[in-house]
């Protein structure tokens, strides 16, 4: 049986992690999250410099785990965001090279609603999510590239 690597595209607050946890339970897959590792290293309020310093090493470590997991025929849910087309193209190719099938999901959630959810999440203590301030959120929103029609993304209702 060929494993599937589920790729989640969307802003913070759009519901990626909630969806990933539910999907992992439904398909008996493994949920891998960049944010979980950043939280363990730096706590809920890392600086941009801290996040940037570990982004590539964390992604490479999670890719190593992904390749090992899909080799067993088990699905993986990558909760990364995949904001740019070039990143999505690169990851789909990497998934295929690992012998798995990529499946891309995008979330039907406006930036304003995502920001409201992030504010609610930020107000909770203790938190199991990264704190995202308003300036960073809107910076992220300006960098996200929507899926193109040829990307065959599955729309997840907001």
Kindly list the characteristics that best describe this protein:
single chain; 158 residues; Rossmann fold; 5 strands; 51% helix; 18% strand
Descriptive notes:
By secondary structure, the protein is α/β, with parallel strands linked by helices. It has a single domain (4-157), classed as Rossmann fold (3-Layer(aba) Sandwich). The chain is 51% helix and 18% strand. It is built from six helices and five strands. It has a five-stranded parallel β-sheet with strand order 2-3-1-4-5, sandwiched between helices. The radius of gyration is 15 Å and the shape is globular. The protein starts with a strand and ends with a strand.
Radius of gyration: 15 Å
Number of domains: 1
CATH architecture: 3-Layer(aba) Sandwich
Helix content: 40-55%
Please write the CATH class name. Alpha Beta
Provide the structure class: alpha/beta
pLDDT average, as an integer?
94
Overall strand count: 5
Number of alpha- plus pi-helical segments: 6
Q: Looking at the chains present, what oligomeric state does this protein adopt?
A: single chain
Low-confidence stretches: none
Give me the side-by-side strand order of the main sheet. 2-3-1-4-5
| First-last Cα distance | 31 Å
What is the CATH T-level topology? Rossmann fold
Shape: globular
The secondary-structure element order is EHEHHEHEHHE
Overview in brief:
By secondary structure, this protein is an alpha/beta fold. Helices cover 51% and strands 18% of the residues.
